[in-house]
Design goal:
With 447 residues, the chain is of the alpha/beta class. The protein folds into 2 domains: 273 residues, Aminopeptidase (3-Layer(aba) Sandwich); 154 residues, Glucose Oxidase, domain 1 (3-Layer(bba) Sandwich), CATH 3.50.30.30. Helices cover 24% and strands 26% of the residues. Strands 1-10-12-11-13-18-14-15 form an 8-stranded mixed β-sheet, with helices on both faces. Helix 4 crosses helix 11. The longest helix is centred in the last third of the chain and has 20 residues. The structure holds zinc ion.
Amino acid sequence: MAGKLRSAGYQVQEQEFQYLFFQDLEGSVLEKTSPGSVSYALSNEFGVIGSTAPGDVTAAIQAVGLNYQPSDYPPPPLPGQDPLPVPGTAGCTAADFTSFTAGNIALIQRGGCPFVQKANNAVTASAAGIIIYNRGDLGGLPNATLGASYTNNVPVLEATYALGSDLRNITGIKVHMVADVSRGTITTYNILAETAGGSPDNVIMVGSHLDSVLKGAGINDNGTGSAAVLETALQMAKVKPVNKVRFVWWGAEEDGYGGSTYYLDHLSDAQLATIKLYLNFDMLGSKNFGRFVLNGDDAGLPSGSKAITTLFQGFYDQFGYTSKLDDQTRWNRSDSAIFAYRQFHIGKTLINGIPIGGLTAGYDELKTAAEVELFGGTAGNPYDSCYHNACDDINNVDYDLLGLNADAVAYATLQYAMNTVKFNGQKGKGNFKQTQPLNTKAKGFFQ
Ligand SMILES: [Zn+2]
């Protein structure tokens, strides 16, 4: 990739960084050793929490905080309503551990604060192991992660609400828990390529993550986004942009947005202030797809994001395709979040994030009947049924959709390369017409 970009005339940087790598080795154990003995089912009743330390502990269980059952929770919100607050803050403060016996395994219900906060409080109270189980109103396993900030050496498992509330009701219970994981520091890269020309004070960034999970090749997630951004960069190599365009392919997204976090952490406030917007492309060819446009109007997103939404909606409209606004939940699961929530100062003014925008064809959530009306496909199935699995291979892509979405990447990139008037009044030179299709060569380039 770097070679292709250099050959096309870009200044390419391979930015090396290290991060805490984590892999579930899938042999974890949770079993009651007294009274009696029972083995619990890995992946059904319990699992590891992301970024846990490896470990093998046998000890008594001690419950921390209260247990809330399903009837304690408010009903889910109706469409258009805000969710009601849910009860439970077990383990969120050190005070919850005042009667905790060092060397026990802490059993804590989810809710009220991040998993890592509960885990760190338990470690401070000298827990030998930690089990965090689900809220009473949520079925199944949390599928949680502590995040790379958890560097303690105490193992942490997660459990279903049913198992967690069972375990806390058995008097004198001892369990054997094994977190079978690999955790360590590894070295990887971001690849950055920017145009030689264009205003360095008015930079637009266009990015996708280049890494995948270990289970599969990661062709839809995110070979599709990466290839679309690469092809756009190559096609644009001869364009003389008004603004500097910086293309980027992130490393370590799948391990907690490591690449984008590292990149932004190593820019000064003055450098951050030159970045006017960030476009993110993650999973552009999901087979049971939607055409989802980030809703830049969502609360908490930097102002300016809405203009990008309008641009992408306009792209789909113009070529006769339906699209759907997508709330920020999904966008918090990609590098876009790191830009949207990055705070910095211009002089004494606090800037709350860099405007973001982008497209996706959908991740692992289930398609709704209303979305089938809009896009076809199968209701009740995931947008990408191979998400984070071995079958995310070259056959796991809707190539027509990818061709269309790659056009949209090119369309938005060229628009903002020439003109960021909607963000900061910076006018272009007028050599861009929004009414004509762009980069038509890109359409179908994967076929
Ligand atoms: Zn992804």
